[in-house]
Design brief:
28% helix, Rossmann fold, 6 helices, 210 residues, alpha/beta, disordered C terminus
């Protein structure tokens, strides 16, 4: 294990500290991240940045069975309060979901993002996020949402072949901006600060950031 001195706030090595770019974002909607357990070891992971910035966020590791069971129970007891952001065969477009027509109670015609106060995102590579999704029946049963708008990610230090592929920070930022008009510039600036320590043209991590 590296003995390099770490910043007590952001937990990055002191030479790659991002604290000067951290600005608290007061989000009303709660962000819940189900994170692949191995992502915590990845220095490029953006969930760490979200934890530094968002006032209302919870991160649950994929091997924390007790917390996952607790979340599953909450989703089952109060399904209208939770929205899952994950593209699937039956997912709705986040941007164009319908509101409940008068006199109609079926939740299947409702875009969950219109009424949910808890937003669930899966964090990991696409393969790992999909495996996490498929490994929990309660996630499969939840109405899920995808992005219809063609978004261009700025997360250049990790590649993905998925169309509309975004970092978790970018996906969360987009949803919060659309849902509650949250100013997401501080989040974008923080991600750029983190990426500045990774020389893209070399594809590697500078010694100071290891």
């Amino acid at each position: 294990m590296s003995k390099r001195a770490l910043c007590t706030q952001c937990k990055y090595p002191l030479k790659t500290c991002v604290c000067e770019e951290v600005s608290l974002c007061e989000n009303k909607l709660k962000v819940i991240i189900l994170q692949d357990k191995n992502e915590t070891k990845n220095a490029k992971n953006t969930v760490r940045l979200l934890e530094l910035s968002l006032s209302n966020i919870e991160v649950i590791q994929s091997d924390n069975t007790e917390e996952i069971r607790r979340l599953a129970l909450k989703c089952e007891q109060d399904p209208d309060s939770y929205a899952l952001f994950f593209p699937s065969a039956n997912s709705q477009a986040f941007e164009q979901g319908a509101r409940v027509p008068e006199g109609v109670k079926s939740r299947e015609v409702v875009n969950q993002a219109k009424c949910a106060t808890n937003l669930i995102f899966l964090d990991g590579t696409w393969r790992k996020a999909k495996r996490l999704y498929l490994s929990h029946d309660w996630l499969n049963k939840m109405p899920s949402l995808h992005f219809e708008e063609k978004l261009t990610g700025k997360y250049r230090i990790r590649k993905t072949g998925i169309e509309n592929g975004l970092s978790t920070l970018e996906a969360v930022s987009y949803v919060l901006h659309k849902s509650e008009e949250l100013d997401i510039q501080p989040l974008k600036g923080l991600m750029e600060k983190m990426q500045s320590f990774w020389p893209h043209e070399k594809g590697g991590l500078p010694e100071s950031a290891k």
